[in-house]
Task: structure prediction
Amino acid sequence: MSGVWVFKNGVVRLVDNQAGPESVNGSGQGSSGVRRKVLVHVPTNEVITSYAVLENKLSSLGWERYYDDPDLLQFHKRSTVHLISLPKDFSNFKSLHMYDIVVKNRNMFEVRDME
Result:
């Protein structure tokens, strides 16, 4: 495995050379826009296109909305210590946030390349 160490927002991480520009800038779009990602609700095969759709799916899985921070959308599940924090503006919803949702909701969501 080879890669490049990238420092961004106070975090150092190893980026695989094969991952392409999306991993380096962390935007979910890549520098050329080729590797854009989408979050998919697996049971319905529905692409999450807005926070309203996402909130509906998360609520059905037992996640509750927190309103403490006006700059974030936050969800908490009572049966766990997990907290999902998302930027208020859906246009800032990146692959990093998508993978956070996937990890905390196994088999319910997937991150896929946009077609």
In short: The first strand starts at residue 3 and ends at 8.
